[in-house]
Amino acid sequence: MSENKIKWLNIGIGAFIILAITLLLVLILPLSNLAIEQDEIAIISISGTVTYNPSNSTKVTTSVSQIENALNEANSNKNVKAIVLDIDSKGGSEVASEQIADDIKNSEKLVIAYIGDKGLDESYLIASSADSIVASSSSSIGGIGLSFINSDKYSKLKLRGEYNEDYLKLKKSNKTDADKLANGQKMIDQDYTQFIKKIAKNRGLSPNYIAKLAHGKKYNGNEAKNLGLIDRVGNKNKAIELAASKSNTTNYTAVNYPKAKKSLTETLSENKLFNL
């Protein structure tokens, strides 16, 4: 074969490869139009310590940006009909929890909170911002104000919610300056009061009533239901079914959000043209 023919053969093969790649991209990129669409219930996990910024710690944490990204993705996907928060947390940053709670209340789509093993203190504040709360009968719920109380002291003082000098000394590295202690006590009291008011508003209850249930006290699912801290007793599937029912969704798939990026093989397998 002459060099000229070989040259044109190589050009032809190259053009064919470029055309094939272009065609493949054209088929894959408009995936939303070509993929088999199905209604979804988005599952967003809130586990470990709630933090404002992402953490490099080996411990399990959930940050504001993680939840915001997941909520944005779920709300922007027309296939998502409702959202379920899968909560298993003792709490964490009050500022972070308040931000997440506000984001949930601003969600365009229905949000159901499911409390698994535990939904305490700041994580309960997050749950209270949802449209409805489901928890298992053995879940640990409430713990309202737990972070405001010295967790090292399990005494009658803690049960009564008295924030005594021992707590403040611990937080102030044992400094006992009267003015600093008084100022610290004032800040704790103010934050605690506001915290209770937010939960009361979210649950449609009076602050005085929530205050009686607070002081770090925990309740199981049945107790929490009777006290008005949750709406239904059930497992995670019940929470998903409730989300589907309230959003008038029948045929759906529960999908974790944010979604993991799919491989090329997975993308092609979902494409109608490749499954004829």
Automatic annotation (TrEMBL):
Membrane-traversing stretches:
12-31
Family annotation (InterPro entries):
ClpP/crotonase-like_dom_sf, Peptidase_S49
What domain of life?
A: Archaea
Start and end of every Peptidase S49 domain? 105-247
Per UniProt, the keywords (alphabetical) are: Hydrolase, Membrane, Protease, Serine protease, Transmembrane, Transmembrane helix
Share an example GO biological-process annotation for this protein: proteolysis
Q: Name one GO molecular function term.
A: serine-type peptidase activity
Against PANTHER family, the record matches this protein to: PEPTIDASE S49 DOMAIN-CONTAINING PROTEIN (PTHR33209:SF1), PROTEASE 4 (PTHR33209)
- Similarity comment: Belongs to the peptidase S49 family.
Q: What is this protein called?
A: Peptidase S49 family
